[in-house]
Amino acid sequence: MRLRSLESRIVALFLFLILAVQLAGFFAIRSGIEKNARASIKEELVIGEHVFRRLLDQNAQKLTLGARLLAADYGFRQAVGSNDQETIASALDNHGARIGAALTMLVGADHQIEATTAQNLAGNLQRAILALVATAEQRGNATDIGIVDNYPYQIVVVPVNAPLVIGWVVMAFPIDQKLIAQMHELSSLQVAILTSGAQGGWMPGVSTLTATDTASLAAQLGRMSTDSSMLPDLKIADSQFSARVLRLARQSGQTTIAVLQRSVSEAIAPYRQLQLTLLILTAAGIVLAVIGSIFMARRITGPLRQLTQTARQLGEGDYHAAIVIRRDDEIGALSKSFESMRDRIANRELEIRRLAYWDTLTNLPNRAQFASLLQDAIALAKGANSSCYVVMMDLDRFKHVNDVMGHSFGDALLRQVARRLKLQLGRHKDRCARLGGDEFAVLLQDTGLDEARDIAAQMLRSLEAPISLDDQTVDLGAGVGIAGFPQHGQDAETILSRAEIAMYAAKQRKDGAVVYDPEIDQGSQQSLSLLSELRRAIDRDEFRLHVQPKLMLASGKVVGVEALVRWVHPERGFIGPDDFIPFAEKTGFIRTLTRWVLEQSAALCAELNARGLDLKLSVNLSTRDLLDLELPGKFADILMRHQVRSSSFCLEITESSIMDDPVRAQQTLERLHAMGVELSIDDFGTGYSSLAYLKRLPVDELKIDKSFVQNMARDADDRKIVRSTIDLGHNMGLRVVAEGIENVEVWHLLVAMGCEQGQGYFMSRPMPSDQFLDWLQRWQAPTPAVAV
Predict the structure, then answer these.
(1) Which is it for the CA torsion 378, 383, 387, 388, positive or negative?
(2) What count of other Cβ atoms lies within 10 Å of the Cβ of residue 247?
(3) Which positions carry the signal peptide feature in this UniProt record (predicted)?
C-alpha cells in the first residue's frame, strides 16, 4: 500500500482507533490497579500498626506475669524483708535468665535501687525506671519502653507485697528479632526498629530487611521528616515501598521508632498477569483490525481504482471504456453515475467539437477549423513545393441591413451568402469558412496568385446579384483581401492576419480585391501605434486648444470663436487634425477627445466672461458623440463645474453624422437644444442629407463649407451655390455662417449676399487660445465696399 493512498488511510484510521481505545483502557486499568493497590497498602499499614501495638501489649503482659511470679515467691520476699543481698541478687539473676530478661533489679520502698543485674546503669535509664516506679505506686504496676544502649527495651514494674509494698521488681526485655518476625508472619509487612543517635540520624536495630536494605532505609529517613505517621514512598532494593511510622519511645533526646513497610511492587504483582493478558488481547485485536481494515479498504478502493482508470481514459478521449462494477451499495451507485457521466461527456464532447470547429448558422468551418485547414495546406504546399492562398471578404452595409431588417433577416442573408460562395468553389479541396460576423474566407490549395485573383473576382461578381428574402431585395458588396503561402507568410496565423489587412484596405479603396502589400501593414502598425499614443496624450497634456474667430460680416465685430484641437507630440512634433481626428473617430477615442475640448472651451469661456467678453464658443461634435445618449448630461456637468451659461455655446454637427442614425441623433440634439445650447450644421452642401429631415432638426445655424466659399470670387458656379445656400438658410429661419474667407473680395461678396457671419484665414488662422486676446486688440475690420 502506498502511504498516501486512500487504502492506507482507511487502515491507519482503523488502527489508530483501536490503538487509542485499547491504550486508553490499558492505562485506565493500570492507573486503577495502582490506585487500588495503594489504598489497600495504606489500609494494611493502619491494621499492621494496630497488630504491632497488640503484640507489644501481649508481650508486656507476658513479661508482667513473669515479674509477678518473682515478686510473689516466698523466699524472695523473705530475702527482701531481711535485706539478704546475696539471696536477692541470686533470685533476680536466676529468674531474669529463666524468662529472658536483659535487666532485673529490686527498687526499695524508698525508691532506692537495692539490687540489679546490670554492671553499669546509665543515669537516664535509672531516672526512667524510678519514674516508672512512681507510676506503679499509683496503678499497682507499670510498663513502658525505654532505650538502653541505643536499643529499645520493654520495662515492667511490679510491687513486692509482704503484705505491704516492701519493694519493686523491675525487669527489662529487649524488642528483639523474634517479635518483629512474628509481626511479619501475621501481616506480611516489613518491620524495622530504628533509634535516633546522639549526633542525629537513625541507627538501625532489628529488622525483617537485610542489613543493607535496613541501612538504606535509615539513610532515607534521615532526609525526611518523621512527624507524620505516613511517609513518602521509599526506594529500597529497587522496589518501591509505602511506609508508616510508630513512635515507641522517647528518652533524653533519643527516639525509637518502628517503621512498617509494604512493597508496592509486590502488591501490584498479582495484577501483572491481568495486564499481560490485556496486552495480548490488544495485540490480537490490532492484528484482526488491520486484516479487517485492509479487506474493507480494498472493498472500497478497488472499485475506485477502476473508476480512476476509466476517468484517465476519458481524459485521453477514450469514451468506450467499460465499467464492470456491479454492486448495490453506494459504490455501485457511484459507478452507475460515472457510467452515465461518461455517456453524457461523450455526447457533449461531440457537440463541443462541433461548436468549436463549425459555424452553427451556416454549417461552414469556423475560424479555428479554417486555421487548422490552412496550416495543413501550408504543410502540403511545403512538401510539394507549391503555394496556397486565402481569399477573405467582409460584407458591405451588413450592419445597416441587420439594424433595419432585424437579426433573423441578417442570419438568413448570411446563409444565402454562404450558399453562393460554396457554389463558386469548383474543386473539392477548396474550402469555404465563416470567420465570424459577416466575414468569410476561402482556402485555395495548390493555387497561384493569378488564379486566386480570378476566383476573388468571381466571388465579388456572385455577390453583385441582388439577394431576395421575404419579399425584400438586398444589394450587397464586399471588401476582399488576398494573402498566401509562401509569398506573404509561413504560417496560418500570419497569412490570416495579412489577408485581413488586405481586406480592410479593399473596403477603404472600394476597387475590388486587394493583394497584401507590406506598405499596407506598415500603415496599420502606424495606426496601432497612433491609437496607443492618443490614449496617453491626454494624460501627458499633449493636446492644445486653438481658436478661430467668428465675426459679423456687416460690422466686422467679433461675436464668437470656434474651438479646435491640436496635438503637439513630444517626438513627432505638431500633428495636424486631419492626421488623427479621422482615426480617433474610427476607434471611438473621439468621445474622450470631445469631452476634453468641451472642458477646455468651458474654462476659456469662464475666463472671457471674467474679462467682460460675451462671446459664443463653437465646438464640433462627431458621429459617435451624437450616438452617445449620455452626452447632454456630461456637458451639463462641465457647464456647472465652470459656472458658464449653456447659451454661450454652439455645437456644430455634420450632415453625414446626422444621417448615420437619424433617430438617435435627433434625440441627442433635442436634449442639447432643451438645455439652451445652439446647434449648427457644419460643412453644409458636402453630404447627402434630406432637406425634409433637416427641417425637423432643432438647429439655429447653417455653415457653408469652405470648398464653395474659397473660390467664389473667381467661380460663378460657386457664387450661385453660396447665394442659394444663404437663401435656403434664411428661408428655414437659420443664421448663415461662411467658412474659408481668405480675401476681402469674398468678404464683400458675402456681405452683399446677406451672409451674417464668417470665419477664415483672412481674419485669422486658428491660434492658441492664450493668444486670442492679443489678436482681438489688434483686429481691424475692412472698409465696407460699395454695394454690388
Answers:
(1) negative
(2) 13
(3) none
Residue 683 confidence (pLDDT) above 80: no
Calculate the alpha carbon distances from 83 to 91, 106, 126 in Å. 13, 11, 21
H or E, element range at 245: strand 239-251
The total of other beta-carbon atoms located within 10 Å of residue 187's CB is 20
R_g of the chain, CA atoms, integer Å: 64
Distance CA 204, CA 215 (A): 7
Please, what's the b/e burial string for 492-528 (b: 16 or more CB within 10 A of its CB; e: otherwise)?
beebbbbbbbbbbbbbeeeeebbbbeeebbeebeeee
The DSSP letter of residue 113 is E
Q: Write down the residue that cell numbers 449648427 correspond to.
A: 680
The Cα 237–Cα 135 span in angstroms is 44
CATH code, 358-516: 3.30.70.270
Sequence length of the chain is 788
Give the pairing of strands 472-474 and 678-684. Answer: unpaired
SS (H, E, C) 635-658: HHHHHHHHCCCHHHEEEEEEHHHH
DSSP letter at 517 equals -
> Which one, of 20, 160, 150, 147, lies nearest residue 77 by Cα?
160
Q: What is the pLDDT of residues 126-171, one digit of tens each?
A: 777 888 888 888 777 788 888 877 788 888 888 988 788 888 888 8
Single-letter amino acid code for the residue at 776: L
Residues 174-188: tens digit of each pLDDT: 888 888 888 888 888
- Map out the domains of the chain as residue ranges: 1-316, 317-355, 358-516, 531-778
Are 724 and 744 in contact, with CB atoms under 8 Å apart?
no
Asked whether the beta carbons of 687 and 707 are under 8 A apart, the reply is: no
The confidence band for 788, taking pLDDT boundaries of 50, 70 and 90, is very low
- CATH 3.30.450.20 assigned to domain 1-316? The reply is yes
Pairing of strands 478-485, 388-395: antiparallel
Strands 165-174 and 151-161: antiparallel
As given in the structure block, the three cell numbers for residue 701 are 445655424
pLDDT at 604: 95
Q: Which grid coordinates are listed for 620?
A: 464640433
> What one-character-per-residue DSSP string does 459-490 give?
HHHHHHS-EEETTEEE---EEEEEEEETTT-S
**Which has the closest alpha carbon to 60: 208, 205, 192, 175?**
175
The packing angle between helices 330-357 and 264-315, to 10°, is: 30
How far the first Cα of the chain sits from its last, in Å, is 113
Instruction: Fill in the DSSP letter of residue 389.
Output: E
Its sign, for the CA torsion 101, 106, 112, 116, is negative
Handedness of CA 233, 238, 239, 244 (dihedral sign): negative
Q: What is the DSSP letter of 386?
A: -
Q: What CA–CA distance (Å, rounded) separates 519 from 728? A: 46
163: cis peptide before it, omega within 30°? yes
> Which distant-in-sequence residues (6+ apart) come within 8 Å of 752 by Cβ?
785, 787, 788
Pairing of the two strands 142-148 and 151-161: antiparallel
CA dist 406 and 408 (Å) reads 6
Separation between Cα atoms, residue 391 and residue 371, nearest integer Å: 13
Query: What is the CATH class of 531-778?
Result: alpha beta
Exposure class string for 539-578: b at 16+ Cβ within 10 A, else e: eeebbebbbbbbbebeebebebbbbbbbbeeeeeeebeee
Spatial CB neighbours of 17, under 8 Å, sequence gap ≥ 6: none
Hey, what's the cell of 610? 471674467
